[in-house]
Amino acid sequence: MSKRKDYITWDEYFMGVALLSGRRSKDPSTQVGACIVNNQNKIVGAGYNGLPIGCSDDDYPWVKTGSFLETKYPYVCHAELNAILNNIGMDLHGCRIYTALFPCNECAKAIIQAGIREVIYLSDKYAGNEVFVASKRMFDTAGVSYRKVEVQVESIVLSFNEKDV
Predict the structure, then answer these.
(1) What is the pLDDT of residue 5?
(2) What is this structure's pTM?
């Protein structure tokens, strides 16, 4: 018997971890996850978009429109920043980050400062927005590469039924 042929690639695996992390988000409109990986293909950080520790998900707004302080925007910590802050306590220089959405300018600054060298994203649906144009400009200047993930599978279904193991 030879080995299985339909196993997922490293990119699919780590993007899958990022997407699964996003499932922890309480945001009703956008669930984003991120996964940081070192050169040995070991996960060293993960995060999702959510409120800072100590701020109740029930006490802050989750809406996208209205006066600034009544929206989610001043309060939510993005997945990429959470992954950096939640890392296992190691230097992130030379690591790569997998994220569902291309990082905003604020996360791009944190990625650069952390020493992450590559960004792999699933969607760049806001590419024309100035926030994301700024991200690419900073990444290009700082030598951080970025690319859209290439996948061979469209979806992966997880089962928590012990009979499927």
Answers:
(1) 87
(2) 0.94
